Amino acid sequence: MTKWVYTFGDGTAEGSSQMHALLGGKGANLAEMANLGLPVPPGFTITTDVCAYFYANAKTYPAELKPQIDAALKQIETITGRTFGDAQRPLLVSVRSGSRASMPGMMDTVLNIGLNDATVEALVKDAGDARFAYDSYRRFIQMYSSVVLGVAHHHFEEAIEIFKEDNSLNLDTDLSAADWQKIISIFKTKIAEVHGSPFPQEPQAQLWGAIAAVFGSWHNPRAKIFRQLHNIPESWGTAVNVQAMVFGNMGDTSATGVAFTRNPSTGAKELYGEFLINAQGEDVVAGVRTPQNITEAARIAAGSVQPSMETALPDVFDQFVAVADQLERHYRDIQDVEFTVERGKLWMLQTRGAKRTAKAALRAAVEMAQEGLISQQEAVLRIEPGSLDQLLHPNVAPESERDVIATGLPASPGAASGEIVFNAEEAEQLRSAGRKAILVRVETSPEDIHGMHAAQGILTTRGGMTSHAAVVARGMGKPCVSGVGALRIDSERGILSAGPVTLKRGDIVTIDGTSGKVMRGAIEMRQPEVSGEFGTIMQWADKLRRLRVRANAETPADAEAARRFGAEGIGLCRTEHMFFGAARIAAVREMILAEDEKGRRAALAKLLPFQRSDFAQLFEIMSGFPVTIRLLDPPLHEFLPHTPEEIAEVAKAAGVTPEHIRHRAEELQEFNPMLGFRGCRLAIAFPEIAEMQARAIFEGAVDAKRKTGQAPAPEIMVPLVAIKPELDVVKAIIDKVAEAVAAETGEMIAYTVGTMIELPRAALKAGEIAETAEFFSFGTNDLTQTALGISRDDAGTFLGIYISKGLLARDPFATIDQQGVGELVEIAVERGRKARPDIKLGICGEHGGDPASIGFFERAGLDYVSCSPFRVPIARLAAAQAAVGGLAPGEDS
Ligand code: PEP
Ligand code: MG
Fold it and tell me: Does the model's pTM come out above 0.85?
């Protein structure tokens, strides 16, 4: 018989932390905590297999589920000495989602199941507080009705408002037990009217309704968006956890809170968290009340006058510290825990690996390795390569002028400037228009996720370090300042004010999520560096990796950044990017407009000195490392002017008529430029272009050698080769120029000639091509485009649909399609190596900086990856993880 339900509590459990695929993260860790003997309210987990069954069978359950749940519920009753639905000692339970990957706040939860007109009376006696009991009951009715019955929140909120008005009451806290009783009966009438049937009084019906709602919430829109953003497969499903309720709102010896075993922002080894006395868990994360600190040290640091848990509940605090410590040592990682204290008794409700900033992840990993808790290799494996992106973005320059208008909590590090927007839609609109937004909200909710993604940073006026905005922003690696109490938002009028300062929608602000400061205007930023723990992890990663990491760079600034980030050479210098400078573009256009070879040569002669000094600079910066320079690749019409004004200007400068330019542009116009007159086809039609570029490379190399004393190692790369003769023709041009320059300068520069492998035919015929090519660099952008027949420039219109319909798991231009494009790479590697065993193999498409793709390139046996300079540290780390066999997040197993 299939086991669909796993129990836990009272020092034992049927599950364990290993079973997170079946029990979800929450269920697996509750089981683990119970097994460790920690105080966990008893409960049971309904497996993710039930979720799969539920969706495969028209939202029904396997037949054995009911008896298994009945038995598990009995077990909770035995442990607690309470009975579900009993009027004297009723058992109340919570029903919560819990999938394999953490999806905070995305799915539904229902608390206090089992409350009804009879059991609420027992709660009155139990708590000795009628107001508390009726308040709980009406909250339960609200929550259950909205989550399970689909009766919208506003019906209840309006009913409370009308009641308060009619009875001249101001605050919820002014309402008595009798008032809540009256409101409960108003609620019931409303539910019967809107829902068409009465609020269910039968606890079993409540329980099954809640279970179905939680399974149903796996497919709610925000959960779907979250899964898309985090590459979580639809097929995983959620588990459902049913657990005895414990109350943090039973007076001043009760409390509820969340804590991290180390600081999730900085990684410092200090218990870090927030709690509220006499409150329920939701109150802490909802940002309604400002939470108190757990430790005295944190309270003093925050300058808070509210007592810490350490002083308010000293005995429970000591016990909690011991539990937190035990959990961190057991899991050997930072834990994020939720707890409740019910009348002085500590209960652990959740533990999970803490979401942390990249900075915190680095510090904690390095310190844990130094503490002997984990090995250096584990420390390297602990860091998600993509998360380093957070540290590779600018921060506010220390010396920059700033106009601070308010300060809040430093909720997620890094700084960002942008236009003020007040909702997610505005943030998205700005992004589509290529503008930058700072999303300003009182507090964010899961509905804001897409706007948070679109914005550069998030600013909230309420909420703590564990508020929704803070947690989600840290996960996204976006700067966030939360809880800026001094700010007032009037989103209707589009105004943000801080004391005397008033800013409007569209005004520029800068937020610094490292210091919590909010500043008017755009502030000068400081470029990031790889130092401290970041540097240490990079050193440890470098010891582990096999793949070399180069950068795609053509400007000196990029090449220097690449070196700072540890690039071991340039894997792709797109020479066309060097054609656009003001002084150069005129010569480029003159070459394109020339009537004959003589005219072209004259124009190219003007370009030569520019290219020569560009290359010399790159060689100097990359002294001692290889530099791959690619010959001109794009179609020539990309360099011609487009607007009438530009055309007129160029015509004047070139001494031709605007008509002549338009005519030439028309001649060069193509239906499919990406498959048109580009790549090596240019060098074959106009050998003088390749000659000039080869000359600039060799002369630049000689200059650099004379200056630095070190001979550069140019690798000259021919783009878009489909057939071997193309490469043969271009190589002959290059070799001839090399000889000429050597004869003229007396310096023979050692160089190699190779090709991009970016067309399927080239991949298939790699054996032949390798007879000429000394290296291959996979141009996976074009290879993806040509293998899938999906235009790089037009994919946006339909790729999203493919991904949302599950036809493609992810964007093949971002993460390599291992099965298809990957097979072409593997074929080319095998055939290329067979023909030329010492052939050098690299990749310089966008995938070179994508951790999931780097795992594939490691297994394919490439020698190096090349990516944009700011992704070099990410690639170094991903390469190390790939070398020791770790799968990158999002990579298929
Ligand atoms: C490629 O096609 O992968 C490549 C690196 O070249 P480009 O992006 O310049 O076409
Ligand atoms: Mg290409």
Answer: no
